[in-house]
Amino acid sequence: MNARSVRVDLGERSYTVHIGPGALLSVPDEIRRSLGERPTRAFVVHDAGVPQVYCDELCAALRGAGLDPTVRDITPTEHAKSMDTLTGVLRDLGASGHSRADPVVALGGGITGDLAGFAAACYQRGVPVVQCPSTLLSMVDASVGGKTGVNLLVPAPGGERLLKNMVGAFHQPLAVAADTRLLDSLDDRQRRSGMAECVKHAMIAYGVTGADLLSETRAVLPAVLAGERDATDRLIERSVALKGEVVRRDERESLGGAGGAGGMRMLLNLGHTFGHAIETIPHLTPDPAFPEMAPLLHGEAVALGMVAACRCAEAAGKCDASLGDELVGLLDTIGLPTRVAGLPEDDEIIARMGSDKKAAGGVGRLVLPVGRGRCEVTVSPDGSWIRAGLKAIRG
Ligand SMILES: NC(=O)c1ccc[n+]([C@@H]2O[C@H](COP(=O)([O-])OP(=O)(O)OC[C@H]3O[C@@H](n4cnc5c(N)ncnc54)[C@H](O)[C@@H]3O)[C@@H](O)[C@H]2O)c1
Question: Which CATH entry fits the domain spanning 4-186: 3.40.50.1970, 3.40.225.10, 4.10.320.10, 3.40.50.720?
Answer without folding.
Answer: 3.40.50.1970
